[in-house]
Amino acid sequence: MTELLENQDETPEKPVLKILYQDEYLVAVDKPSGLFVHRSYMDKDEIYFALQLVRDQIGQYVYPLHRLDRPTSGVLLFGLSEEVARLMGQAFTNKTIQKTYYALTRGHLLGEGLVDYPLKEKLDKIGDKYVDPNKEAQEAQTYFESLDTATLNETVGKYNSVRYSVVKLMPVTGRRHQIRRHLAHLRYPIIGDINYGDNKQNPFFNQYFGFKRLMLHAKKLNFTHPITQKPIEIQADFDQQWQNVFERLSLNVAELSD
Fold first, then answer.
1. Torsion-angle region of residue 220: left (phi > 0), alpha (psi -120 to 50) or beta?
2. Which CATH number goes with the domain that contains 229?
3. Average pLDDT of the chain, as a whole number
4. Residues annotated as catalytic (active site), given as ranges
5. Domain of 242?
């Protein structure tokens, strides 16, 4: 499922989210780019939210266990009881849940490494109005691995070619916009990032590929089941827009979809 259409003259059809995993304790879905996880002060014109959609699809209340930004696609996990939500919350706090993301970035980012760069908390004007704006930067670490690069012989600004990288990312901490800010810190911002990205490359990408979105995908979650204690791995496939980009840039999707 690709990015949701904006509400125009009539109410859009209610989306049906793909369920990636479900048992009596947990449910995971593939969240499309453009969908909020739950209501917030930013969503005045929005009609549908992942929490509401999942609740309606499975017929019971669900508890969001982590956050994906509205423009980020991929694995989104919910608990089906307060106790499971509490146990999974402890797992996230204890960093025993492995999150794997993929991003398309500007430039040729090579090799692998750890970005260890503290981040000042990003505050919402309304939602965080009582939070101290002078709070010290918090520790933030993200492992990255460059998987492939591509070049288009197109002129953008003063450059006569456009370079891209597909990067695998595994955040250790979970700060707001951490991956996006860490890649911008490395000077390889994510394509489609309107907050930390390239204001020349983003419009070119939109025109060349025919769509507009943040190219960040939550590909995989690995964790120990809070009740059965069995290892769980949940994956979300790249959607059609991602696959179109891979094809036009001659990138091997099979190798990138471990």
1. beta
2. 3.30.2350.10
3. 89
4. 69
5. 14-94+221-248
